[in-house]
């Protein structure tokens, strides 16, 4: 067991284990976005830092089929950070939230050595609610869009290069419309934040394995911070899922099936938070 899971287990609760916690009619979720861990300041403008922090937090609610309504925002910023950069960072946060109908209603601020942003998202649940670990053997495994571009962008930045404003590493694309339309036909769902290789086991029950029927590249398997939807569905719902993806002009990638048999996923050294 890795250190991240060990820490999560210290706070074990019946509501834990998904992208958000469902309590009554609401879904509560939270993510961190920290300089030196998730980004370097020279890689993103202040506006892009705020905008990406908002997007990755909203993603957790969407993949549970919930509609974000409110956010609490905690900011830790260097004392030497100029006010014009602070204004730009906050504009990124506010504008992305506003574009999804989310109001920032409170939070906290303090000084710190580096930029640290945390949002608590309060979302209204829809029916059905989407959880992890609800797939049945024989269900198809699929993801939306394309994987690999976030890791490619990261490597470009690490080598001193530059990325376009709409590059995946800078600006993830959330699939809320597809998720809301397809939710009734899905058996489980989550977003791909730590890479497909890391996240796929989290989607399945402990005794279940993924049997791939498609060859995936190392970039597709390992690329984190993609925020594409990773989901399962019954084979009988395949035509419906395909039609919804077509309606949303979204690439649908059916990559395998859920099984109790041995997995055939290639082994690479996967990402770890610690």
Characterization of this structure:
- Substrate binds at residues 38, 225, 271.
- With 274 residues, the protein is α+β, with helices and mostly antiparallel strands.
- It has two domains: 3-125, PurM-like, N-terminal domain (60s Ribosomal Protein L30, Chain: A); 139-259, Alpha-Beta Complex (Phosphoribosyl-aminoimidazole Synthetase, Chain A, domain 2), CATH 3.90.650.
- It is 30% helix and 26% strand.
- It is built from eight helices and ten strands.
- The chain has helices at residues 3-10, 46-62, 83-99, 149-158, 176-182, 196-203, 218-222, 238-247; strands at residues 21-23, 26-34, 66-77, 103-111, 116-125, 140-144, 186-191, 209-212, 229-233, 252-259.
- A five-stranded mixed beta sheet has the order 1-2-5-3-4, with helices on one face.
- A hairpin with a 2-residue loop joins strand 1 and strand 2 (26-34).
- The protein is globular, with a radius of gyration of 18 Å.
- The chain starts with a helix and ends in a 15-residue tail after the last strand.
- The mean pLDDT is 92.
Helix content: 25-40%
Major sheet size, sense and barrel closure: 5 strands, mixed
Side-by-side strand order of the widest sheet: 1-2-5-3-4
Separate helix tally? 8
CATH superfamily of the largest domain: PurM-like, N-terminal domain
How many beta-strand segments? Answer: 10
**What CATH architecture label of the largest domain applies?**
2-Layer Sandwich
| Mean pLDDT across every amino acid position | 92
Order of helices and strands: HEEHEHEEEHHEHEHEHE
- Which strand-content bin applies to the residues? 25-35%
User: Which residues sit in consecutive blocks of at least 5 with pLDDT less than 50?
Assistant: none
- The CATH topology of the largest domain is given as 60s Ribosomal Protein L30, Chain: A
> How far apart are the termini?
12 Å
Binding site for substrate: 38, 225, 271
Binding site for Mg(2+) 3: 19, 60, 191
Binding site for Mg(2+) 2: 31, 60
Keywords: ATP-binding, Kinase, Magnesium, Metal-binding, Nucleotide-binding, Thiamine biosynthesis, Transferase
């Amino acid at each position: 067991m890795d250190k991240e899971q060990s820490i999560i287990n210290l706070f074990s609760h019946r509501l834990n284990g998904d992208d958000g916690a469902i309590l009554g009619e609401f879904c509560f979720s939270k993510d961190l976005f920290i300089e030196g861990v998730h980004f370097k300041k020279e890689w993103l403008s202040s506006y892009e830092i705020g905008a990406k922090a908002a997007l990755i937090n909203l993603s957790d609610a969407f993949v549970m089929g919930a509609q974000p309504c409110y956010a609490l925002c905690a900011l830790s910023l260097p004392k030497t950070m100029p006010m014009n950069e602070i204004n730009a960072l906050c504009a990124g946060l506010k504008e992305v939230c506003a574009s999804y109908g989310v109001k920032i209603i409170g939070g906290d601020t303090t000084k710190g050595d580096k930029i640290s942003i945390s949002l608590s998202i309060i979302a209204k649940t829809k029916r059905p609610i989407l959880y992890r670990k609800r797939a049945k053997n024989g269900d198809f495994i699929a993801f939306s869009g394309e994987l690999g571009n976030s890791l490619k962008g990261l490597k470009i930045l690490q080598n001193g290069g530059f990325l376009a404003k709409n590059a995946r590493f800078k600006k993830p694309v959330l699939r809320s419309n597809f998720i809301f339309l397809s939710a009734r036909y899905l058996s489980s769902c989550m977003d791909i934040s730590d890479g497909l290789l890391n996240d796929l086991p989290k989607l399945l029950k402990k005794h279940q394995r993924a049997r791939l029927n498609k060859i995936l590249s190392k970039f597709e398997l390992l690329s984190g911070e993609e925020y594409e939807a990773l989901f399962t569905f019954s084979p009988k719902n395949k035509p419906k899922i395909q039609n919804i993806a077509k309606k949303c002009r979204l690439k649908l990638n059916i990559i395998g099936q859920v099984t109790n048999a041995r997995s055939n996923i290639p082994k690479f050294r996967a990402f770890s938070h610690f």
